[in-house]
Amino acid sequence: MKLDREAILEAALALLDEVGMDKLSTRLLAERLGVQQPALYWHFRNKRALLDAMNGEILRRAHDRKLPLPGETWDAFLRENARSFHRALLARRDGARLHAGSEPDPGDLDMVEAQLAAVVGLGVPAPQAMTLLIALGRYTVGCVLEQQATPPDAEVQQQALDAAAASRPLLAEAFASYRKAGPDALFEIGVDLMLEGAKARLAGEPAPAAASIPKKRRAAKGR
C-alpha cells in the first residue's frame, strides 16, 4: 500500500469505527498500515494533527449542506445545515468526540465566510448569524455526544428510572413522551425551538439605527 495522506486517513477512520476514540493510537494505526510509527509523522506532525484531519475528512465526506439552496429562507437553511452536520457526526463511531473542541482549519475559512455571507444575505445581521451557527453547532455536537455515549445497559437503566417515576404523574408523562420520540426526533425539536426563538428575537429587534446620527452630522454628510 502506498503510504500517503489519503491512505492514512482511510485507515484511521476505519480504525476509529473499530476501536473507538479511547483505543485509537498512532502505534495501532502504524501496525494496521504495516509501517513504523515515525512514518506517520511525515504526513501528520502529531496525533492532534491526525485527529483534526480525520474530523475534516468526516465533514468533507458527509456534511453536504453548507450553503443555502436557491429560494431557501435562512431558518430553513440553518435547519438543513444542522441536520447535515448531525448526520455527519453520527456516520462515524465517536464522531462527536472527535469533533468536540476543534477549530475550523484556516483553509476552510473561505467556506465559513461564504456561509456567513449567505445567512446575512437572507436577512440575519452578521453577529446574530454567527451566534446562531455556533449555538446550533454546539447543540448538535452535544446531542450526538449523548447519543454515542449510550452505555450497553441503557435499556435496563431506563426501565428502572421509568418504574421509579411511575408514582410521579408529570415525570411519568414526560418520560413516556421522551422515550417515544427517540434521539433523532428530540434533536429536531431542539433545533426548532432554537430557530423559532431566533425568529421571535429578530422580529422584536429595532431596525439598524442609521437615524440616530446627530442632525449636525447628517447635514454635514449631505454637503
Question: Would you mind describing this structure in some detail?
Answer:
The chain is mostly helical. It has two domains: 55 residues, Homeodomain-like (Arc Repressor Mutant, subunit A); 138 residues, Tetracycline Repressor, domain 2, CATH 1.10.357. It has eleven helices and no strands. The protein is flat. It starts with a helix and ends with a helix.
List the topology elements.
Layout lengths: L4 H15 L6 H8 L3 H4 L6 H16 L11 H17 L4 H5 L9 H13 L4 H23 L5 H12 L3 H36 L10 H7 L2
Helix pairs in contact: 4-5, 5-8, 5-10, 7-8, 8-10
State the end-to-end distance. Answer: 72 Å
Low-confidence stretches: 208-223
| CATH-defined topology of the largest domain | Tetracycline Repressor, domain 2
Q: State the share of residues found in helices, binned by percent.
A: 55-70%
Sheet bearing the most strands, described?
none
Q: If classified by CATH, what would the architecture of the largest domain be?
A: Orthogonal Bundle
Please tell me how large the radius of gyration is.
23 Å
CATH class of the largest domain, anyone?
Answer: Mainly Alpha
The average pLDDT value, as a whole number, equals 90
CATH homologous superfamily (4th level) name of the largest domain? Tetracycline Repressor, domain 2
According to DSSP, the number of beta strands is 0
Keywords for this entry:
Arc Repressor Mutant, subunit A, mainly alpha, 11 helices, Tetracycline Repressor, domain 2, 223 residues, disordered C terminus, 2 domains, single chain
Entry summary:
InterPro entries: DNA-bd_HTH_TetR-type_CS (IPR023772), Homeodomain-like_sf (IPR009057), HTH-type_TetR-like_transc_reg (IPR050109), HTH_TetR (IPR001647), Repressor_TetR_C (IPR004111), Tet_transcr_reg_TetR (IPR003012), Tet_transcr_reg_TetR-rel_C_sf (IPR036271). The chain is mostly helical. It has eleven helices and no strands.
